[in-house]
Design a protein that fits this description.
It is built from 31 helices and 29 strands. It starts with 8 loop residues before the first helix and ends in a 9-residue tail after the last helix. It is an alpha+beta fold. Strand 8 and strand 9 form a beta hairpin. Strands 1, 2, 3, 4, 11 and 12 form a six-stranded mixed beta sheet that branches. It has a six-stranded mixed beta sheet with strand order 19-18-13-14-15-20. Helices cover about 50% and strands about 20% of the residues.
């Protein structure tokens, strides 16, 4: 019987949460980040924002890759966090606080302190206190003045996370309110090892970002290049294009060879589609050749000339002293970059320093020729990266279609000259891509492609490993084994490779990456049940241990190049189990076949059952056994999956989950401190602005008229005291103290401003309330008079009717006796017998004064029935009485007060009463409408009967006054209560507007010269 699966309410609820959360994640914005050595650039992709550069708070398209801790003027405090600066603001304070400004961190990210790059960085930044992290062993920095000594050193990953948090905040500001940025694609140089890539991912995780993928710099530029181009279709016999991306930035030089082509592939249904393909074929690099290296040439030359200057020699300045002085190096480094940029467009330039070191001034001059002579050895290294990239790709210069330049340092004249010399001319060099933003646009496009929220041009990209990789292990005899699995050009994301082991016992294998001749471990593969799985094959399937093979599927992930294990299983070839024949199958179907029995059951089987087997059956069984034994047994492949663990190794793996959470908590505390500081600065700005505003308030005529001399003097004194306090003891005041000072000033100013505002607005609002009271009183009084008249008329009518009925009763006997004689009397001649008889004009009627029809109807039928009852008027009458009494009392009290007294008749109270009066009037109007509808509903039956009667007595269907024609149905118009209320509101609003316009017109006419009576 099939099992029916039911979903519990909890499961349905959790599924709904998952679906909604997945939808929310899908529509989130994504970010592409070009993580450069000197600059960080970001591109945002969001519905409505296709691909836009994220601007800094200074509206710049790139942010300097630097973060700084600004020490407090009162010194560091335990548990307190200093102010942080980013980008250009951080570099601006580098000469003042060189020990707390951290620029160009990409060059040492994820590297141990003993590496050449870290030592070079420490030498170029002498004020920074660099040390090895106590757990990870990589580079970390201890603040020199912003934190106490108890504070732990800051990992490079933490500092980079702060920069990414700043970029993320700018991106969310661009995305708009209620938008979050969580997903990101980050560019990395091709020479980054697995450990360095993990450091980038850790920085993004600490910043609250999820890395969708890492992408190499050259591939990102090529992807951006491919978004606007169509390449040759290889299905049609065309050859792929080969382009080289030459990227020289601040920290390094990279050359990447790309293959670009298009291909026709199967689409949905019977359709085909053409996609673009961009693949990396090879890459070469120089990790230390970049703009910074060229800047250091100028810095070293400036230090040499400064030390050799007469003024410096007189002061006893030494080369080592200048190089170890952080502030001096910060000034020289900043100026050296400016000089190099100027020399890219000019032949010479100069710089001046006032009090560069030990109060010694210095003036420096340099020409482009001198700079190129200093960089001669660096120029020779430019072509090496291109040469290595071509060698890895197996191509020659003639195979390249173009060389695309990217990076700021490619604008240096001698760099372009060296490239031209190596390539044999400038024909292949292209500058038709944005050398600053092509990589970040490529990263943003890749982020949009990986996100389910966006649909972009289909471009398939393929990156490579860049480093050879393999694995090491020991066999069951303890002999080391080694196998190379991937080369430097192995594509990422390719199908899994299968590795076969002869081990039959649990093992541990290490994956490694070959970097500069050293095998750096990346992950450890450990089996859990290999031994047990092999034993199961031997016991259950009769496999020989020598025939058992342990096979593992491995691949390189396309997201970050990490090793991934797709499967692990032991297998062997075993005999297929015997299948039952047709007769045995029939016996089994009816329960007479052989059954699997346990050992106990086999022992307890009765001998009588065995002896009951017939002789013919035994003979048949023996014959079939002989036939089967003569046939060869079939083999089948038996597999058992093996449980395993794949654990990262290296310095990054030394950080436990608890350690990473501690890093996140420290960054959150820092962010909370920044938020508190921001709120304090806002409070400080409000207080300062208010003290300046008070000077203007004290000079206002309205403020003087509604304040006493004592209040103004107190306010002036309080304002002066707080101003002095702000620039004295209040410099480090907390937000609460600043708000308290602001409240002290507002408690004096606000009551006076309130008096002035009340005095200005009260007359107009008071007049409006009085007019509303008069109108209410007049309306209610008029309705009361109509109700009284209606009731009086009907009272007199009922009295007359009763008198007439008594007279008729007394004369009924005489009327009955004379009925026989009166029946023979003819009718008077004046009575009309025809339709038009009696319609001639009467002479007396023509000469008499005509009477008003309404008065005639009122005299004959009585007053019009009122739409209200006395009960309906009660609420309005009571409200009128209470408001009138309250207003009379308050007006009398207010008239006794002076301009400096707090009002007792406030605008707020007047508006509240006016609103109550308006609501009561609206309610009364609605009651009238509803009462009218009830009257119409009740009169429908009588009106119909009257119409039928009139149609029977008169022919031709004449009009009855203003009624409908005979046989017609009156038009029915229904209006809802909401529509009636809206109509009434509009009427009231129109009346109010007319009153205001009339009042304005009256004021205008009062200002004009009055018209004389004679002129009227």
């Amino acid at each position: 019987m099939a099992r029916v699966s039911t979903l519990s309410p909890l499961r349905i609820f959790l599924s709904a949460i998952f679906l909604f959360s997945a939808h929310v994640f899908a529509v989130s914005a994504v970010l592409g980040v070009d993580l450069g050595t000197e600059y960080i650039k970001a591109a945002l992709v969001k519905p409505g924002i296709p691909l836009e550069i994220v601007l800094t708070k200074d509206s710049r398209r790139k942010e300097i890759s630097a973060v700084a801790f600004k020490p407090s003027s009162n010194g560091p405090k335990k548990g307190a966090y200093p102010e942080r600066e980013y980008g250009s603001d951080a570099m601006a304070i580098a000469p003042r606080f060189p020990g707390d400004v951290y620029p160009n961190l990409k060059a040492i990210l994820g590297l141990p302190t003993g590496s050449a790059q870290v030592r070079e960085y420490a030498e170029r930044h002498p004020s920074l206190r660099l040390e090895a992290h106590k757990t990870k062993g990589s580079a970390a920095f201890r603040s020199t003045g912003a934190f106490t000594e108890e504070e732990e050193a800051w990992l490079v990953e933490e500092l980079l996370a702060m920069e990414l948090q700043s970029v993320r905040a700018n991106a969310e500001a661009l995305a708009g309110p209620d938008s979050s940025v969580r997903s990101v694609v980050i560019t990395v140089p091709p020479f980054y090892t697995t450990e360095e890539k993990r450091a980038v991912e850790l920085s993004a995780e600490l910043a609250g970002l999820k890395v969708l993928s890492l992408i190499s710099d050259g591939l990102a530029v090529g992807l951006n290049y491919a978004t606007t181009r169509q390449f040759p279709n290889v299905n049609k016999g065309a050859k792929a294009e080969h382009h080289l991306i030459f990227d020289m930035g601040a920290g390094s030089t990279k050359a990447t060879v790309l293959s670009m082509q298009s291909r026709t592939v199967k689409d949905v249904g019977k359709f085909n589609k053409t996609i673009q393909e961009v693949s990396v074929l090879g890459s070469g690099w120089d990790r230390t050749l970049g703009g910074d290296a060229l800047n250091y040439l100028i810095v070293d030359d400036m230090i040499r000339q400064f030390v050799e200057s007469p003024a410096a020699q007189k002061a006893g300045v030494t080369l080592e002293a200048v190089k170890s002085h952080g502030r001096t190096i910060a000034k020289l480094t900043k100026e050296a970059e400016r000089l190099r940029h100027v020399l890219s467009a000019n032949q010479n330039t100069q710089a001046s320093f006032e009090g560069l070191y030990d109060d010694v001034d210095f003036k420096y001059k340099i020409t482009r020729a001198e700079f190129e002579d200093m960089a001669a050895t660096h120029a020779q290294r430019v072509s090496a990266a291109v040469e290595n990239a071509l060698a890895m790709a197996g191509l020659q210069i003639k195979d390249l279609d173009s060389v695309i330049l990217h990076g700021g340092a490619t604008r240096t004249p001698f760099v372009q000259k060296e490239l031209e010399n190596f390539l044999g001319g400038a024909d292949k060099i292209r500058t038709n891509v944005n050398s600053d933003e092509a990589a970040v646009f490529g990263a943003g496009f890749r982020a949009a492609e990986l996100s389910p929220s966006f649909r972009v041009k289909e471009i398939k990209i393929t990156d490579i490993a860049y480093y050879p990789a393999g694995m090491r292990w020991k066999n069951d005899e303890g002999k080391p084994k080694h196998q190379r699995l991937w080369t430097a050009t192995s594509p990422l994301g390719a199908p899994s490779k299968e590795v076969t082991f002869n081990n039959v016992r649990d093992l541990s294998a290490s994956f490694y990456q070959l970097v500069d001749g050293a095998e750096l471990d990346t992950k450890v593969f450990t089996t859990k049940n290999l031994t047990a799985s092999v034993e199961a094959l031997v016991e259950k399937h009769k496999c020989e241990k020598a025939d058992v093979k342990f096979k593992v599927g491995v691949r390189l992930l396309s997201e970050n190049g990490e090793v991934d294990v797709t499967k692990a299983a032991v297998e062997c070839e075993a005999d297929e189990p015997e299948k039952d024949g047709f007769v045995d199958g029939v016996k089994n179907l009816f329960g007479f076949g052989k059954k699997d029995k346990t050992e106990g059951e086999e022992e307890s089987a009765s001998a009588s059952t065995e002896s009951s087997t017939s002789t013919s059956s035994s003979a048949a069984a023996s014959a079939s056994a002989e036939i089967k034994s003569s046939e060869p047994k079939k083999k089948q492949l038996v597999q058992i999956n093996v449980d395993f663990t794949l654990t990262p190794t290296g310095p990054a793996s030394l950080l436990s989950k608890a350690s990473i959470q501690a890093l996140k908590d420290r960054l959150k505390s820092f962010a909370a401190s920044d938020r508190t500081r921001q709120l304090r600065e806002e409070a400080l700005n409000q207080l300062e602005a208010y003290t300046y505003k008070i000077s203007d308030i004290l000079d206002r005529e309205s403020f003087i008229a509604h304040s006493t001399t004592s209040e103004r003097e107190t306010l002036q004194q309080k304002k002066d005291d707080i101003s002095d306090w702000l620039y004295g003891d209040g410099a480090d005041a907390t937000r609460e103290e600043l708000k308290a000072k602001l409240n002290e000033l507002q408690n004096i100013v606000d009551p006076v401003l309130k008096r002035a505002e009340e005095a200005e607005k009260r007359p107009e609002i008071l007049k409006g309330l009085q007019d509303a009271l008069d109108n209410t009183n007049k309306f209610v009084k008029d309705i009361r008079e109509k109700i009284d008249a209606y009731e009086a008329f009907h009272a007199s009518a009922s009295a007359s009717a009763s008198a007439s009925s008594s007279i008729a009763a007394s004369s009924s006997s005489s009327s009955s006796s004379s009925s026989s004689s009166s029946s023979s009397i003819t009718a008077p001649a004046s009575s009309a017998t025809g339709d038009f008889d009696g319609l001639e004009d009467d002479a007396s009627a023509t000469t008499a004064t005509p009477e008003d029809p309404m008065k005639f109807l009122e005299k004959e039928l009585g007053p019009v029935p009122p739409l209200y009852t006395l009960e309906d008027l009660k609420e309005s009458e009571d409200l009128y009485t209470s408001i009138s009494t309250w207003l009379k009392s308050k007006v009398a009290e207010q008239e006794k007060l002076g301009p400096t007294d707090d009002p007792v008749l406030t605008v707020k109270d007047l508006l509240e009463r006016r609103e109550k009066l308006d609501k009561a009037g609206m309610a009364l109007a609605m009651k009238g409408v509803k009462n009218f509808e009830k009257t119409q509903t009740k009169g429908k039956g009588g009106k119909t009967n009257g119409k039928a009667k009139a149609s029977g007595s008169k022919a031709g269907g004449k009009k009855n006054g203003k009624g409908t024609k005979a046989g017609e149905k009156p038009a029915k118009e229904t209006v809802s209560d909401e529509e009636l209320e809206e109509m009434l509101r509009k009427v009231m609003a129109d009346e109010k507007a007319k009153e205001e316009a009339k009042a304005q017109k009256g004021e205008k006419e009062s200002k004009e010269e009055p018209i004389k009576h004679e002129e009227l």
